[in-house]
Specification:
globular; binds guanosine-5'-triphosphate; Rossmann fold; binds magnesium ion; alpha/beta; seven-stranded mixed sheet; single chain
Amino acid sequence: MAFLGSAASPEQFPTGGLPEVAFLGRSNVGKSSLLNALVGVKNLARVSAQPGRTRLVNFFRVGSDLVLADLPGYGYAKVPESMRRGWEKLVTSYLDRRGALALCVFLVDARHPPTEGDETLRAYLDHQALPYVLAATKVDKLGRGAVSQCREGLARGLGRKATSVVPVSSVTRTGIDELWRTIRAAAAPGR
Ligand code: GTP
Ligand code: MG
């Protein structure tokens, strides 16, 4: 596992060409925590106590054959408009032209209905025909009934074009193995 670097603009994206999986979702939804849970390293991707902290695209290499990209979150109200547009530009410049992109992991908070930003991202991914798995985060905060209700609701709604909907928790590690299998399948050589 290695930190490959942070990028503030497309020229700084790494060029190794390894299959890549991008983590996308609103600010504070748990992207960095999920990344840390997946690779089993604490604080590799910095977890923010305050939302809106990941302002760059951070790249991590896993083993010799996979790169994970932690993208900046959207929807944090307390940022100036100019900064919000800068983040949007960075995310779309990544999604539009990242040839190595094998899969997006689109995170939504299992406890709340999808936000306007979530709908915008979904429309964008669908429009670009980018494959994505929907990860419903923080399910340790929900009972089992609520988790399956959430999964079904997302499979019919926001995630109807997703390859799958996976309830996850970075605290209890629920869904981590299932998500790994999905990632490995998407990033397998020859795909
Ligand atoms: P930005 O980088 O700001 O976009 O946020 P992020 O999406 O990377 O979220 P981050 O991983 O920093 O987590 C935000 C907050 O949610 C932190 O306080 C985490 O401890 C908490 N959190 C993340 N994942 C989980 C989870 O699975 N369960 C619970 N209970 N809390 C979580
Ligand atoms: Mg983060």
